[in-house]
Amino acid sequence: MSDTRHINIEDHAVLLAYLRDRRWIAADERPSFCTLAGGVSNRTVWVQRRGQDWVIKQALAKLRVKVDWFSAPERIQREAAGLRWLGELIPERVPAVVHQDNENNILAMTAVPQPHCNWKTALLAGQTSLDFARSFGELLATIHNAAERYPQLEAEFAERHFFEQLRLEPYYGYAASQMPAARAFMEQLIADTRRRRFALVHGDYSPKNALIQRERLFILDYEVIHFGDPAFDIGFSLTHFLSKAHHLPAHRVAFLDMARAYWRSYLGYLSPPLHDVVRAYASKHTLACLLARVAGRSPLEYLDADQRARQGRIVLDLIREDIGGVSDLIDAFSAKLAHRL
Description:
Layout: H1 12-21, E1 32-35, E2 42-48, E3 54-59, H2 75-89, E4 97-101, E5 106-110, E6 117-118, H3 119-124, H4 130-144, H5 146-149, H6 153-156, H7 161-178, H8 183-195, E7 199-201, E8 210-213, E9 216-219, E10 226-228, H9 231-247, H10 252-269, H11 275-295, H12 305-321, H13 326-339
Antiparallel strand pairs: 1-2, 2-3, 3-5, 4-5, 6-8, 7-10, 8-9
Helix pairs in contact: 4-10, 7-8, 7-11, 9-10, 9-11, 10-13, 11-12
């Protein structure tokens, strides 16, 4: 594992010297820097330059959460590979790689043009949109369909070490250790997920990793991209719509409608051979992620303690009730919220 402790890109003087030393910028160029907040796994800095702004990321070995959570910073190389491939697939919706430093696990990419806003921030402000939900579904289906066009993706992204470090253990495994009533369900899902390899999987598909720019969504953060179970992306992303429906009761109906529109749009664009593959596990992953975001290593920060406890109780009930399809799960989750367990 590379030692990046001698470089901290959030120290802007250090970053300026680094960029000049690497000759990524001219010796006399003086860009402006802005450290971007919100991520737990990387240092991220927006570099304002004449002509083209960049975003520079540096992967952290120890993530910025309350409990110990580690992951090899070499995952930034996986992100660079994901960006290059998705740049072929959806070139107008992802940043482009500008520079890559594997020794220090630093990646420079084009910045999404201003003005833009983070979709998670907009949603938490109650700015719901069925159109964006449908676009989000279409983009995910396009990613999942990618291997039909590029069959070499299966070999390129076969390694799933970072998915284990950043998703299966901290989300599913840790939540199982905290919620004994769900342990058998979670452990079985972990085992099933490890053997299911059907499509290219983003692994971090959420509104936090989407920017709105001129009515378009840009999709970010590919450090856990891999070839595996596409139903994981559905569970991970649906959790955000459902958890916000829980958190913001004044907008609950709108968020639930967004969840339904997202699911329908996704299925409408998904390659038919993947339909049964996704349907078989989408609800399971949604329940597991709903639980993981209140009992895992990275709980949703906007849910308070009472909401986390309540969401945990709802999920345990739904696991016992063995809910089938995604639409049924959304309806059942909505009904549980209405009854205020």
